[in-house]
Structure formats: structure tokens, C-alpha cells
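Hi team,

Filling in the usual template for the complex we talked about on Friday. All components are listed, including any nucleic acid strands or ligand strings, so the model treats them as one assembly.

SUBMITTER: L.P.
PURPOSE: interface mapping
COMPONENTS: three
RESIDUES: 747
SEQUENCES:
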Amino acid sequence: MKNRFIVAALFLLAGLLVILIPTVLFPVCESEMKMACYYTKQAEIGVGAVILLLGIVSALFSEKRTRAGISIAQFFNGALVLALPFKLTGLCKMSDMACKAKTQPALIVIGVLILVIAGVNFGYLASTGSKDD
Amino acid sequence: MLVSEKITYRYKKNKRTILNSVDYSLEEGQFSAVMGESGSGKSTFLAIMAGILKPVEGTVRYNDVDLYELTDKELSKIHRNSICYVPQSNIMLKNITVLENIVNPYIEADPEADLKKKAISLLEKLGIGNLAGNYPYELSGGELKRASIVRAALMGPKVIIADEPTTGLDKETGNRILSFLSEYAKEGNSVLVATHDEHIEKYADKIIRLERK
Amino acid sequence: MIKSKIRSILSGVKSRIFYSTCLVITTAVLSFMLFSGSIIKSSLNKGMDNMDRRLGSDIMLVPKGSREEAENLLLEGQRGTFYFDGSVDDKVKDIEGISEVTSQCFLKSLSADCCSSEVELVFYDPDTDFVVGPWIETNYKNSLKKDDVIVGSDIVTENGTIKLFGKDYEVVSQMAKTGTALDSSVYFSSESMASVIADAEEKNSFLTEEQKDGDILSSVFINLNAGYNEDDVIRECHEKAGDVFDVVYPKQLNESLSDNLLRITDIVGAVILIGGVLLFGILVLINSVIIESRKQEVALLRVLGNSKGKMAAMLISETGIVSLFGSLVGCLLGALIVIPFGRYIGMSLSMPYLGPDFIGSTLQIIFIMAIVFLVALVSSIVFVFHVTGIEPYLALKKEAE
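RESULT (copied from the run log):
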């Protein structure tokens, strides 16, 4: 029971951070031109919203299997948070650009944390058996 | 088998003498009881006999070996294999199961699976085989006491020394425990208990009474 | 046997989940501080070492009126786009007491395939340069030809070329990372200067009419022979070249940078020390509570045939395993934050910063885990011996009452 709400709150917070990092906390480069980092920002807002909503949804389910499934989904969402700046949409190429110096490290931190939370939660749910709460 | 000679114990602080030159002998196959009012030194006597409290004077010999002359390691070996003490309070770690509580102290000695099988059969003998997987806080006092006795008997020690094993328990549970211990003694072991329980007369081969000094 | 030993230790940890959590958190915080502090410190030191090379001249001449700009830019590890007449270095090179003279010219350019990011173009004379030349030689032994370029580690190249002012240049070598502005620069031989400036002129005019005609320079670097007074040499330079330059003393700047660095690393060190002492106190407290609360359990296990030595080993391994775990978590968290943010840390401190490599970080983690492990052991050892030394019956009885 406690686990359910703590993890939901963590996902909710993590989703919120994924949205806020490229927009408010560590914003990407400002420019008239729409550069690579602009698209990364837009995509991260989307992924962040999904993580946040799945977090809320996971609090509604008492079945451990369902929540374990959501954790698997969140794990891959975390991977997506990382893949966007590195591979899929990318960032500016110079390392002293704002998106590279600030947004990227912040996304690395939150992305890895999402992977860890989702992985640990899945492991926990899988190991505590089928008792629902 | 287990013999004490002239044991004397006195509290360090107020110098009050609890035991004064007690001679005692526990024979193989014997179920023996110590009675007496509170403060008469029953518990202290048991602890000294069990080799976990050094007397001020006197000796305790197990098969002609003076327990208090042994090194810590040698004494531990005796406690593991030969003389097992069951304290008055039921001490269990609360976040692991009853079965784990019973098996863990010995886990390095034997294969875990064997120990567990043995523990479960002993628990069944005492009527709580179904509680092995529960946590200690889910058990009543009587159930915990029985689990403590299983823990002591697990390695098949030659001597079990139990401090008030039936105090605070209902009559049926108390009898169950006493008959288990009496049976254990009949298998060629020895049992020594301290008790207020008058039912002991039905089970014990030998009863001594300690007077409050 | 070992497996069951570990399992019995883990069940001990599990049975005291609250205190174990406290211990994990304390050691994690301690390790986080130690790891991030030491990584920041060593990265600043490494960056500073690389900086030394860049500021390696006794005096530096810059155009009149640009001294302050030049000093600030140097401190931040950047270069200025200010220019004076290209003949200055020729005029001063024969002055008595001067051992070496070389000049560089800087341009800024938008890199074609990147966002609005600027790259710095550095024109240097491979024959005389002693400022970036020796550094470049560590990687590229040949003499740099006209229209070939060498790039710093941060420069993005495409198929071995880089497009500047609409023209492709062949990249003959890319330098290793230094953590300074050297990384975001493109290096040309001074022979290439005229044509690059001509290209630049087509794109955007930034030179005065007068400068457009002649060749231009941004800075002249001068080393002195031993025993010559800087002021005398500078006076002579003024006589020869006229009143067209200001003087910057890179070594002094370097010292002030070193002072800054020392101040920062001192603060980091002090924080580590104070925090470490505090956390040690907390560890002592937690251990005293954990171990005291286990008197009864220890006594019971001893009654059931475990020797004092075995019990001490059990208590110590529990503390050890829990603190190693906490330490690993703290170090990884530190690595997760400090390593990606390295660039930002350097930028906000205005200091050259060269982050650690993988092996360096791993060794650092192992080192810190070893230290935290020892600290945890030291903070628990007194209690361990106290608790295992009590007569079992007395400990058991105390709890029964």
C-alpha cells in the first residue's frame, strides 16, 4: 500500500521534472531558429507527460501485476528520456551551448533515476509475489 | 552428566548472596525441576548450570569438563552441541519469519534445507507447524515459547535448560511444553527447568526447592 | 557456506531495516560529498595544468585599450577579437633581452553546421610559436600547411572537413580534451590568414578600413632572457613600435587564477572535513543505537553456541556491508550528477575544468568506498566489543525485566 503511493509520487515528480528541465529549470538554447534542442525539448515534454500520467494511473491499481507492467513501461520511458538528447533528436553540437552544458546533464540525471526507480520497483513487485494491496 | 559443586553467587553491587554453596547433579535421561519463590535464585542457578554466568565460587562440570575453565570458543562448541539454554523471554527478530529465527543461529553448521526440515517437524510436534512462515509478531506468547524451545532443541543438545518455560501460559499449552520436554529427556537427554508450575510434579523425575535468603 | 553466511547477515540487516536505512543514508551522503568534492577538485586542478600551457609567456602585448578585456577573457579561458597592426612583432623582436617572440590572431566564426555557436579561429606561426605550438606538437608532428586546420576536441567536423565562412577546410588532426577554450578553437597556420579574412569580409565586415589593408594581429607573446627587467623591455618596445599596445602579464593572471583555484579547493576541502566529522558523529550515534539494541540478540546467539569472535565478526560485517552499499549509492549518485554537469560547473566557476575519465572515476569510487568502510568500522568497533563482551545471561535478563 505504502509502496504504491510512494512510487506513484516518485513517477509523478519525475515526469514533472522531465517537462520542467528543458523548459524552465535548465532550458535549452534560445534562438529564433528551431534547432535540434528545440525538438528535443518538445519531445521531452511529451515523454514527461506520459511518465507523469502513468504515475497517476499506477496509484489507481492495487494489482501488483498491473503496477509491475507500468514499471516496465516507465523503464522504457526513462530510456526514451535519455535517447532523445543523445540519439533521436539530438542537441546542439558545441559543448558550451546551454542545452549541452545544462539540459543534457539534468536529463541524464533524471533519466537514470527513472530507470533505477522503475527497475527497483519492478524487482520489488516481482519478488513480493502475487499478494495484492 | 552435568554436575555443580559448591556454587555460590552474589550480586556485584549490593553483595547480596543468592546461592550459597549449592551442589547439584543432573543425570542422563532425567527431567529435573527447580522450584522456589521469586528471588530465590532459580534463574541464576540455571544460568550458572548452563555455563552462561560465571559463579563467584564453585565449579560446573559437564562430562568432567569444568565449563568455566574453557576458552570462549570451546564453551561455544558445548553450547552449540551439548547444553542449550532457553531464556525466560522469547527473543525473536521481528522482520524475519519464525522458521528463519529458528534456523539462522545454526545456519553455518548444516545445510539449510536439512535444518528447515528438522525445524518444521519439531514445530509440528509442538502443534505449531503451520506457523513456520509467519512473523513473530503474528504469534501468541505460548506459540513463541514453543518456537523458542524448538530453536533450542534443533541441534539435538544433550541438555536443555529452560527458564520458566510455562510461566504465563494456559494450562493446555503448559502441559504440551512439559510433555515435549519430558519426552526429550526420555530419549537419553537431560532437561532442567525452573518453574512455579505445580503441574511439574506429573512430569519431573526430580524436584529441588530453593529458599529465598 | 559463504552464501548462507551472507544470507544470515542480510536477514540481520533486514530485521533492523530502520537503522540500516539510517546507516545507508549517512554513508551515502558522506560518500556523495567525498566523491563530488574530490572529483571537482581534481578536475579543476587538471584544467589548471592545461591552462598553464596556454598562458605560457612572460609578457603579452595587446592593442591599446583592450587590456582589461584581454585579462578577463584570459581568466575565463577565452580569446579576444581585438586587432593591431601586423608589424608589431617584427618591430620588437630584435630588442635586447627578448628571447622569443610569436604572435597570434583570433577570429570568431559561426560554425556552419551547428546552432548559433561560435568557434574561435586561431592563426599561429608554427615556426616560432611557444604558446599553443608545443601543445599541438604533442598530437601533430608535421608543420601545419596553408588551408589545413587542426581542431580542438569540442569542434564538430564532418567527413574530416570543417566549413568556415563558406569554405571547406581539411582537418588534419583533432586534439585531446583540455577543459579550456583550447577545445573549442580551430587552429590555422598564419599563412592561411589572408584568405580566411578575405572570406570573412564577404560575410560580415568587422574590421576597420585601415586594418583591412594590412595584416593584423591580436596578441604578441614575448619571453625574456633571464636577468632582464620587464619594465626596461616594455619601455624599449614602446620606443620601437609606438604607443599602440597595452601589456598583460599572463603569469600574474595565472597566479591569480591559481589563487582562485586554491580558494575554491580550500572551501571544498573544508566542507568535506566539517561534513565528514559531523557524519562520523552521526555514524557513531547510529551504531551505538543499533548495536546496543542488539545486546539481547547477541546474547541469545552466544547462548546458542556462537563465540564472541563470531558475534563480533557478524556485527562488523553487517555494518560493513550496509556502509559499503550506502557508499556505493552515494558515489554513483555523485558520479551521475558531477560528471555530466562538469562543463556547467567549470562554466559557472569561470575556471578551466577537465572532468575525470572512466578509470579515474572508478578508482576514486573504490578509494572512497574503502575510506567510508573504514570510517564505519572505526565508528562501530567500541560498541561491538562492548556488546559481545557482556555476560549473556545478564543481557538476556535485562530484557526480561
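MY TAKE: Chain B touches chain C through 36 residues (CB under 8 Å). Strands of chain B lie at 2-10, 17-26, 31-35, 57-62, 65-66, 83-86, 159-163, 190-194, 206-209.

Thanks, L.
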